[in-house]
Amino acid sequence: MNPTTESIVQGTVPAEVVDHNLVTTDIEQLCDGMVRYEKRPAVRLDGSIAEGLYNAWIILNNPNQYNSYTTDMTKAVILAFRTASCARDVNAVVFTAVGNKAFCTGGNTKEYAEYYAGNPQEYRQYMRLFNDMVSAILDCDKPVICRVNGMRIGGGQEIGMAADFTVAQDLANFGQAGPKHGSAAIGGATDFLPVMIGCEQAMVSGTLCEPFSAHKAYRLGISCEVVPALKIDGEFVANPTVITDRYVDQFGRIVHGEFKTGEALKQAKAQIKAGEIDLSMLDEKIEQLCSKLLETFPECMAKSLEELRKPKLQAWNANKENSRSWLALNMMNEARTGFRAFNEGNREIGREIDFVALRQALAQATPWTPELIESLMPKAED
Predict the structure, then answer these.
(1) Which carries the bigger pLDDT value, residue 4 or residue 104?
(2) For residues 77 and 83, what is the distance between their CA atoms, to the nearest angstrom?
(3) What total number of domains does the chain contain?
(4) What is the DSSP string of 113-136?
(5) What range does the domain containing 43 cover?
(6) DSSP letter assigned to residue 4
(7) In this structure, are 225 and 369 located in the same domain?
(8) Which of 114, 165, 311, 342 has its CA 20 to 30 A from that of 197?
(9) Residues 317, 188: contact at Cβ < 8 Å?
(10) Could you tell me if 225 and 370 lie in one domain?
(11) What per-residue confidence (pLDDT) applies to 187?
């Protein structure tokens, strides 16, 4: 018979317990509920409730903009992680988002384009908040699980990689967006990717900005679990757009996790459209992992986290301030252009500039003027 919490702590609790939080502000008030903080009962491995213990869920709630984070959301995430870290009754932190389309696609490009573009001094202050958000994840005294409910792209990939574990539904895509949209992936990706997946694959992701599947993320080592989310005729099936058979092609390349092409891809997309998305298996895996973490010594767990995070922390702390300065200055030219293009474009005309025209102009020593930027914006054909 397990002793109750009351019998363990009776007579030992100080008359006044010190609050170690910086502020007592309601997290959801900071951004109109666009970041939610919930404490859900912790469950033992046998399925029983561990009374008085919880897992903290930090949930991005901006689905209309693919759960991209605004300035106020960034503040709320920082406070949420500090709150979870200080909470004596919290076992683990689950970092996720609402819906099944996106975990996070990074910073809010509308805010970037309409406020920060051309304002490096303002973006520098914003990047202080962003850096503090990443550091809050890396410094959390509790294990952090990124529940990837949908695509994890750009800055979303960076804050996701700051977590200790990643569990993904297999319709999700991963990747970076920097050089395609006027930035560089120096909000954590250039620090974490070489450590986590190796220099060559990090180079591919950080420069070519080609999204890859959750199955490939598992193969590369930036996800510890991947589960199906697509149901067809009531049965879970693996993502049909991805080659899930584990084999090596005639050139010696590992094909597992790569996207299908041509007619096979077209048929796979039709399958997804005809099916339904169900994240119940994802939630089962999350609960399972939280239960495993619950059955450990808390201080030994905290020390293990500190030590195992060191490779990421060392790279992050060595570079974050230089990265912040460069990203701020970049808001005067390429970022100013790229974020505007994404914000003002659409599916029909595209969301990227004419890269060749830019390179041709710069080859002629053309200065960065408002006229040059305007000429590069995506436009409908006459």
Answers:
(1) 104
(2) 10
(3) 2
(4) IIIITT-HHHHHHHHHHHHHHHHH
(5) 16-229+278-333
(6) P
(7) no
(8) 342
(9) no
(10) no
(11) 97
Tell me if 42 is assigned to some domain.
yes
The two tokens of residue 9 are 């702590």
Show the tokens assigned to 29. Answer: 């008030």
In-domain check, residue 8: no
Q: Which two tokens stand for residue 375?
A: 């000429």
Q: Are residues 318 and 172 in the same domain?
A: yes
Q: What is the mean pLDDT of the chain?
A: 94
Residues 57 and 102 in one domain: yes
202 falls within a domain: yes
pLDDT in tens, 208-249: 999 999 999 999 999 999 999 999 999 999 999 999 988 888
Q: How far apart are CA 350 and CA 158, in angstroms?
A: 25
Question: Which residues 6+ apart lie within 8 Å of 162 measured at CB?
Answer: 134, 137, 138, 144, 188, 192, 312, 316
Residues 282 and 370 in one domain: no
CATH number of the domain within which 155 lies: 3.90.226.10
Structure token digits, residue 370: 């408002």
For residues 230 and 239, give the distance between their C-alpha atoms in angstroms, rounded to a whole number. Answer: 7
Task: Determine the Cα–Cα distance for residues 200 and 336; give it in Å rounded to an integer.
Answer: 29
CB 55 within 8 A of CB 91: yes
The tens digit of pLDDT for each residue in 89-104 reads 999 999 999 999 999 9
155 vs 129: CA distance, rounded Å? 13
Let me know if residue 338 belongs to a domain: no
Do both 319 and 349 map to the same domain?
no
Q: β-strand 49-60 against 35-43: which pairing, if any?
A: antiparallel
Q: Are the C-beta atoms of residues 104 and 97 closer than 8 Å to each other?
A: yes
Both 370 and 326 in one domain: the answer is no
Residue 226's SS3 state is strand
Q: Is the pLDDT of residue 22 over 90?
A: no
Asked if 123 contacts 327 with a C-beta cutoff of 8 angstroms, the reply is yes
Q: What is the pLDDT of residues 253-309, one digit of tens each?
A: 888 899 999 999 999 999 999 999 999 999 999 999 999 999 999 999 999 999 999
Q: Is 90 exceeded by the pLDDT of residue 321?
A: yes
Does residue 307 share a domain with residue 354? no
